[in-house]
Amino acid sequence: MADTRPETAGRPIRIAIVGVGKIARDQHLPALAANPAYRLVAAASHSGRVDGVPNFGTIEEMLAAMPEIEAVSLCMPPQVRYEAARAAIAANKHVFLEKPPGATVSEVEHLKALATRKGVSLFASWHSRYAPAVEAARTFLAGTRIRSAAINWKEDVRRWHPNQEWIWQPGGLGVFDPGINALSIATHILPEMFITQATLDFPANRDAPVAAHIRFRTADGTPIGMELDWLQTGPQSWDVLADTDAGSMVLSGGGARLAIDGRTVHEEPEAEYPMLYRRFAELVRTGKSDVDLAPLRHVADAFMLGKRSTVAAFYD
Ligand code: NAP
């Protein structure tokens, strides 16, 4: 009998997008259009639409109407990702999860178990790990002794997330929505680390923090500080710094550039989403999953250990 699985039949993976908002339009649709390993066959969203494919109001309607779908990319806010992923896995679909992979650690653990049971691929994507200079930073740090490190992620929420209500609601993560990108890099390039102290600043009228001040230590005691700030106007910073025996490292631009002692040693154009989709195709082809929960666990730890401070109300 002919093998019809895309991973062995050499034909594109029939994929659907769920949650047609900013990131789906800015990154997922262009990355899919440019990658011959995929054919976009449908979309599901409440009001968002994708031209040229059938559109549905819910993932359940889409899965029922189009059994030929083989994979779904879940680009909606994290609070509703679990139910959608569960429905997709139950229908034997491979699943690409936008970051953060869910609203709780346990629900993503459960999805991992469900995917294993069903024999489908689950990909918890961390786009910032695919920023161009991240691997070079990892290699540099692996070859030296780190004395201390600092993570500074400071951006203007009004510029990057205007009127996104979900981001301020429970499970939306607030400033940890970008902060988890920093953690996805830090957990990839720094030794294992643990939170020892945290303060989370909650605007008086919101259920998610607008800033966070966190201290980590590694198992051997190396101090790592993290400052997240969502009210930064002017220059924006997405930097990981390390003081090491081999010099002072600055990974800046969200992982785009690496400098050692002030000299740029690695810089390339970014291609995070094309790389994420290459990785997902490889997982589908090889029948594997990739679900690293370390960044989400640190966020959970910050909420668990963090002191809560109330700051000025936030209005968009
Ligand atoms: P967004 O612009 O608010 O878009 C999310 C979309 O999800 C909305 O358009 C909404 O669709 C849809 N949606 C909500 N509930 C749904 C459900 N139950 N089923 C199907 N669709 C649903 O948010 P975003 O900025 O794209 O962010 C989405 C995710 O991507 C977040 O986890 C975020 O952290 C991640 N991300 C965002 C960025 C960025 O730069 N914005 C970058 C990287 C990753 P309707 O409009 O149809 O109601």
Q: How would a textbook summarize the main sheet?
A: 9 strands, mixed
Gyration radius (Cα, Å) is 20 Å
User: Tell me, what's the shape?
Assistant: globular
Give the SSE string: HEHEEHEHEHEHEHHEEEEEEEHHE
| CATH structural class of the largest domain | Alpha Beta
Q: Would you identify the regions where 5 or more consecutive residues have pLDDT less than 50?
A: none
Straight-line N-to-C gap = 58 Å
By secondary-structure content and strand pairing, the structural class works out as alpha/beta
What is the CATH architecture term of the largest domain? 2-Layer Sandwich
Determine the CATH topology of the largest domain.
Dihydrodipicolinate Reductase, domain 2
Overall number of structural domains = 2
CATH homology superfamily name of the largest domain: Dihydrodipicolinate Reductase, domain 2
Bound molecules: NADP nicotinamide-adenine-dinucleotide phosphate
Instruction: Enumerate the strands of the largest sheet in spatial order, edge to edge or round the barrel.
Output: 14-13-12-11-7-10-9-8-15
The helicity comes to: 25-40%
The count of strands amounts to 15
| Share of residues in strands | 25-35%
Helix count, DSSP H or I runs of 4 or more residues: 10
Query: Residue-averaged pLDDT, rounded?
Result: 96
InterPro entries: Gfo/Idh/MocA-like_OxRdtase_N (IPR000683), Gfo/Idh/MocA_oxidrdct_glycsds (IPR050463), NAD(P)-bd_dom_sf (IPR036291)
Domain Gfo/Idh/MocA-like oxidoreductase N-terminal: 13-123
Pfam family, one: GFO_IDH_MocA
Protein name: Gfo/Idh/MocA family protein
